[in-house]
Amino acid sequence: MFSRLSEKTFHRIRWVLTIGWFLLIASLIYDPITVQWTQPQANSSGLPSPFRLDPNIYLNPQNCVKIRSNCISEQPFALGTLIWWSMIVPSAIFILLVFGHEFWRRICPLSFMSQLPRALGIQRKRTVIDPVTGHPRQEVATIEQNSWLGRNHLYVQFGLFVLGLAARLLWVNGDRILLAGFLIATIACAIFVGYLYNGKSWCHYFCPMSPVQLVYTGPRSLLGSQAHRLHPGTLTQSMCRTANPQTQQEQGACVACKTACFDIDAENAYWQELKKPGRRLVQYGYLGMVIAFYLYFFLYSGNWDYYFTGSWAHEEDVRGKIADVGFYILGSAIPIPKWIAIFLTFAVLIAAFVVLGCWLEKQYRSYQVRRGQKVSAEQAQHIVFTAFTIVSFWAFFSWGARPTLNRLPSMLLLGINALIVLVGTLWAVRTFGRSQSQYKREKVCLSLRQQLEHVEIPNEILAGRSLDELSVDEIYTLAKTLPNWSHESRLRAYADILADVITHHKINIADSFSFLDSLRQTMQLSDSDHFIAIQFLAEKRSGLFTSHTQSFAQAGDQNSIPTVSFSRQTAKTIPYRPKPR
């Protein structure tokens, strides 16, 4: 949806948001303005402010908001912390579910700041040997996919996310100076990672918000685009791009900092990384974190007023309360230090929801077996992931923005509540029905449609429609039932589609066997035909497989992919027709 908007437009938006972010940080240090909006009387303009302190509490100390049995001092306060935690953060969550990762990544100020070293040309360089010339050359480092961080970055990011929320409860919730320092330190980390590594390494491997983006985007957002259905070479979603100096036209600037890149095709990354280490921890643990974080306000204070009134946003002496009593349950203080109580609450609920999610996967598969239907482990995981995401979304907005939303007029608040329910329901309905096989069919459909253009199709079959007007299912049905499409022609078309999948869709040769399984069944080709097509392409387009040969052989050993005996004579039986580009 937003991938067609120019990088120049988004560049301006990022600058505006970044400047606004720095102004907010500055207001955390000095703010003589918003403190006037919290006065218990009307503000200086004569208009009532929704943020003003409740006069009944302000003037009558007996009606105070309490932490256990202690009243919180109610004095006019600057709104910086409340604006950040109860307006900006919830807005980001809403944007992710509705407009998707592709929109958020292109406007995110933190992602923008991480690219400053590249824009200034000051990135760290390392010396490598050029594989073609054999001479040493300088290049910016990237994080290797098979490195420890490349494999386990979800654990790192989720751990940073947990530490960030713990720091919020301990210090930065109500201390404006500490919150300013926290945000500045985060920006500095993003810039430093951008100096160390190329591409969007901060976003992919370090950013604590990345797991949240992963959860709320799912295979696709409510209004997100479908990159896999676009023509090869199209700039998709939030992929890295730059303007050509001569033509000023935008072009891709991908440096391959991550395979199955979330910025190029979010749904492909979703299906490819279902089994990635830490993926279940992120999805199931996130719901546990949402509940644990907001529940702790109650467990600490003994009441919900402490959270919903926003009193935590101007609590006094938060720095000295790290060893305060951590739990106050049923009117009794439990002598566990606050910093231990926070991590204990997080650990229990994260573990409980991870176990619950894994158990639900097994129960869902067992239920489908009892119904006589076989469901893959990946599809069961997707169904439970989707359920956890929508519960997380509704749970978040049951608490997340309430210190601000609850101050709005009742009719406006009712409308916002209805919008949250509607958006979540629409996203869930749209997502529950997705499957990896459906994604693969849609991804290959464009190539299959192009191959069918070379086949003579009777007019009565198309019923006056063109191939472009046929749906994905109709294209596959047509490919399966055409009587005049010979085996030789099918094999030639399959070889062209295989080349397309490897070249433009970045599917590894080893993965192409399973990726095109449904297509082979549709085109009535055998598994051995897949390897004949590979041999044919190796003969006619020798450069196609150069970078894939070793990985194909390794995957063949690991996955027991069946092999066939090839010969040059076999390959020559497939007439070669260069595909028009």
TrEMBL record:
Span of the signal peptide: none
Annotated transmembrane regions: 12-30, 82-104, 154-171, 177-197, 281-299, 339-360, 380-399, 411-433
Domain of life assignment: Bacteria
Keywords noted in UniProt: Membrane, Plasmid, Transmembrane, Transmembrane helix
Designated name of the protein: Putative signal transduction protein with EFhand domain
Source organism per UniProt: Leptolyngbya boryana NIES-2135
